[in-house]
Design a protein that fits this description.
alpha+beta, Arc Repressor Mutant, subunit A, 4-stranded antiparallel β-sheet, globular
């Protein structure tokens, strides 16, 4: 639930705030409205983009991570696997008469802080220069992500580096003696990072992707794959750890991931075809009910759309069109189809798992006697 918050005059001249990009500053202010009274909110990038910057074409994950890098917000991992955002000085700047206690179990949570030197070191290792946005891959599965090293308003390199749709992972786990040094950091997507935990990286790859692991070649005798190899960091802690795409990689074990990349590309193409079909149905419905049409077909939308269609097919529908039309029929019975056109239903909103479930359960069903518009 959004809340009214205040902005102090000194905010605009704060030495950290003035170095942040404009969209990042606006996102930070918007977070105050959607944080609870103790300054906590769930880390849900898509939801935050819809709530705060719904009409802006930005990589919201990068801006969230940039705020973390600047120390304006903190990430907290909860024991149930969720990740939340904390506004450290929230209570000092917001005067709330009757504070409602947070619903998050923060007492058992663990803060995730990436040192400034590690961020810059990893960016340099992967070839990202100040003012650039470089596309990178998950070390384990090849999922796409990005490194962003923004410039200040004066054109100078920013002191902070942000990572979008990708996380920093310890190659040698911390409980096995791994440190925060850039040589021990590889880039990992959220799924691989959470799935791996404290497992040995080689064992994790061989167990998670058995069709690509094969027999590891003897040390110093890797397979030639015309530049499409996967470089594994040397497990000797005295040597540097340089994942694929890093500069000055030492000689190490090599694992072929070509088939995994091919499968990922085929899945992305399939997702885009499915999204194209679904958005045609959505745009037709949107024109009749004054809802915004979908114009940009992005990978994020395609991935979410695939998951929602899979959920809908559990109701017995075999084709994508039948499954999505079933969902639209539920929308026709909701107050979104009959209510205030100033508050239309949005496609991204409908593709959220929790929201779609509530729509199917009839939570938004239009009832004339209870109409609020």
């Amino acid at each position: 639930m959004a809340r009214i918050r205040t902005i102090k005059p000194e905010f605009w001249t704060d030495e950290k705030i003035v170095q942040l990009p404009f969209a990042t500053r606006l996102l930070f202010i918007g977070m105050w409205n959607f944080a609870d009274d103790e300054g906590y909110l769930e880390e849900a990038p898509d939801r935050l983009r819809l709530q705060i910057l719904p009409n802006d074409d930005i990589e919201i994950e990068e801006h969230i991570d940039l705020l973390c890098a600047a120390g304006m917000i903190e990430r907290v991992s909860l024991t149930d696997g969720r990740s939340i955002l904390s506004l450290p000085n929230f209570s000092r700047h917001q005067k709330i008469s009757h504070v409602t206690k947070t619903k998050f179990p923060v007492s058992s949570g663990k803060k995730r802080v990436i040192p400034f030197e590690t961020r810059r070191g990893v960016a340099i290792k992967y070839g990202c220069k100040p003012g650039e946005r470089k596309e990178v891959e998950c070390y384990f599965c090849g999922a796409k992500g990005s490194i962003w090293w923004p410039l200040t308003s004066k054109g100078k390199p920013s002191g902070w580096v942000a990572f979008g749709n990708i996380e920093l992972d310890h190659f040698i786990p911390e409980n096995s003696g791994g440190n925060e040094n850039k040589e021990n950091i590889v880039l990992s997507c959220r799924y691989c990072n959470r799935s791996r935990g404290y497992k040995d990286p080689i064992q994790f790859i061989c167990k998670s992707f058995p069709e690509n692991s094969g027999d590891l070649p003897p040390e110093g005798k890797g397979r030639e794959l015309n530049g499409r190899e996967r470089i594994l960091p040397d497990l000797d802690k005295s040597k540097s750890v340089s994942p694929a795409g890093a500069e000055d990689a030492p000689s190490a074990e090599i694992i072929n991931i070509e088939s995994r990349k091919q499968k990922s590309a085929e899945r992305e193409a399939s997702d885009m075809e499915l999204l194209d079909e679904v958005t045609d149905l959505w745009n037709s419905w949107a024109r009749q009910h004054h809802a915004p049409a979908v114009e940009r077909l992005t990978k994020q939308r395609a991935s979410k759309c695939r998951h929602r269609i899979e959920d809908l097919k559990k109701y017995g529908y075999s084709t994508t069109a039948d499954a999505f039309n079933f969902l639209l029929s539920k929308c026709n019975c909701s107050f979104f189809a009959r209510g205030d056109p100033r508050k239309p239903l949005e496609f991204d909103q409908l593709m959220q798992e929790g929201f779609m479930t509530r729509m199917l359960e009839g939570a938004f069903e239009y009832r004339k006697e209870n109409r609020k518009f």
